[in-house]
Hints:
Distance between the termini: 31 Å
Radius of gyration: 25 Å
Strand order of the largest sheet: 3-8-9-16-13-12-10-11
CATH class of the largest domain: Alpha Beta
Amino acid sequence: MRSAEINKLGAELELFTSVDYIGKGFPIMLPRGARLIKNLRNYIEYLEERYGYKIVRTPNVSSSSIYKIEDRYDDTLKEEMFIIDTDTENLGDDENDFVLRPKVEPFHCAVFGIKKHSYRELPVKLCETSTVYRNEKDLKGLNVVRQFTMSDASVFCEPENVEQEIYNGLKFQKALIEKMQLDNITYEICTWNEAKKEDYIGTIAEWDHVTTAMKKALEDLGLEYTVNNKAKIFGPIIRAKQDGVNFSKIQVDFEITHRFNLAYTNIDNEEKTPIYIHNTLIGSYENLLGILISKYNGNIPLWIEPHQVVIITDGPNTKKFAEQSRREFVANSIRVEVDDVNISVQKRIDHNNEIKIPYVLVAKKDGLNRDQLYLCSEGKQIPVDVKELINKINDRLAAEGYVRDTE
């Protein structure tokens, strides 16, 4: 599905939109879209902690100094940044620059560097649901935007544990891909151009060790891959693509830990520099939303559906019963909303069907004494027992692997 079609369907399903005077590349998540992303985020953050990551929160804006330490505050990178110059008398003076965060890697290095670490503590695994800002020029629907939210993870480990940590990252990513039933996923290892080894950071042994570890981890998980020489100068990458478009990555960076003078004490009480691995396990939530809209044509899986149930009132006498029923669904961790808008019942049914609510129910007078709602299906209104319907929905959620304590 093309970006224009995803944008159209996203608006029709009341998931996201854009506003001209806000600017291109700044999508607005409407209540349903924001809730869907929240559901995904809750699940992923829940799993991150299960996989041993510690959640951190770092600033959305900072002094440009952090990027100077990283040595990536040059003209090329600055073109991609949103820079705030706070000194109106000396515009263009880098010393006064503040930057809207384009990435989290240097911030996670700063967190690691706050205290001394022993080899016994490694790997140190940090994660963050981070909003980042990049002045992208080639905008493409939800795939390439200027403000987006990532599931970012950083791993600091000993060199001998690189293969295990790459394997762990890929295994986690594979579980998420299977959970969302994404298809057409391909993998590539980006390594160096051997004819230009002198242009890259790191030793031949380091590049060979990490590239071999990446191949082994992919093979152990039964994932096919290709190899190219398109790595960035500071380390090899595993890129996962969905339908040929960059989806997520696992990046080893040989330079950044040296730039921030990061160290740990090894078993011989010697100071050593850790290896840094950066994971974006599902890419950006905006891009993932576009992928899900395209794959399911708007019929979002029940476990992440923003509103699994909508109860439509049919006259003032049914409001109390609708609210009572809503509380029963909520008590069973089912996401529900009461639709009491002052338009006809049929128009509300049609609207909720158009935005593809899985269970559209009507509270009618003749169901009040029987604890029954009416399920709207294929143009009919079928009486259903509230408790039986809750059990049916719970069975369906269980089949989809819904985890209740992520709510």
